[in-house]
Design brief:
The protein is of the alpha/beta class. The chain contains 6 helices and 11 strands. It has a single domain, classed as Class I glutamine amidotransferase (GATase) domain (Rossmann fold, 3-Layer(aba) Sandwich). A 9-stranded mixed sheet has the order 2-1-3-4-11-10-9-6-7, sandwiched between helices. Strands 5-8 form a two-stranded antiparallel ribbon.
Length: 241
């Protein structure tokens, strides 16, 4: 499978998604939007992954490539190919599917529990999420659910943590986090951390290596299920998006 990752900033990449792809024999290529690299054509990949970043989905004036990225996400959805959005990527996917994206009441930065919703039981892919788990978070915005999407996960600080809409999946949290990826976020974005109830100090984010290890089987299982459902007939996604 040819996986194309859209990278919005130098310090936020696919992290353990790349490790998973290599272990499964998939080809993973990255487009660096912040370096104005040209976006691929839909025919050039089998699976599109939009990663995180500190900008917002409505910041096209400052980041003009956001407009082209949204167009590519829409084209990919209409072509019936899978799309995974992580954090900012999930917000971009929600925006493309017609849902609102706006400031969350609280920032979530650090390790906080997420609960699977009852609707996850009928989902094709995200039902593999544990009933409760503790992923890494770094976001101040949130998204509404697209029309027809299944609400898959929630947390005390942010109701809409994940959705599934055919072959479109949005994850507000970071299952792909590694010590290296979190260290990079801290180096570049620590000024965003305040004193809210869902904002941890930097030392706490890196204190327990077991937190990162616990994410690995969750991510691997989820990506395996996504890959297994990634070859539908064209336009299958249109039914719910």
């Amino acid at each position: 499978m040819r996986i194309r990752c859209l990278k919005h900033v130098a310090f936020e990449g696919p992290a353990r998604i790349a490790d998973w792809a290599q272990s499964r024999g998939h080809m993973l290529a990255t487009t660096k939007l912040f370096h104005s690299q040209p976006l691929p054509a839909v025919e050039d990949f089998d699976w599109l992954v939009s990663l995180g970043g500190p900008m917002g989905v409505h910041d096209e004036a400052q980041y003009p490539w956001l407009t082209a990225e949204k167009q590519l996400i829409e084209q990919t959805v209409l072509a019936g190919k899978p799309v995974l959005g992580v954090c900012l990527g999930a917000q971009l996917l929600a925006d493309v599917l017609g849902a609102g994206v706006y400031r969350n009441q609280q920032k979530e930065i650090g390790w906080f529990p997420v609960r699977r919703t009852p609707l996850a039981a009928v989902a094709e892919t995200l039902r593999s999420l544990p009933a409760e788990f503790v992923p890494f978070h770094w976001h101040g915005d949130t998204f509404q659910l697209p029309a027809g999407a299944l609400h898959m996960a929630e947390s005390a600080g942010c109701r809409n943590q994940a959705f599934e809409c055919g072959l479109a999946w949005g994850l507000q949290f970071h299952l792909e986090a590694t010590p290296t990826s979190v260290e990079a976020l801290i180096r570049n974005c620590a000024a965003e951390i305040g004193s809210g109830p869902y904002e941890q100090i930097c030392d706490e984010m890196l204190r327990d290596p077991a937190r990162f290890l616990a994410l690995e089987p969750i991510l691997d299982g989820l990506l395996d299920r996504m890959a297994a459902t990634a070859s539908p007939a064209p336009n299958d996604m249109v039914r719910c998006c």
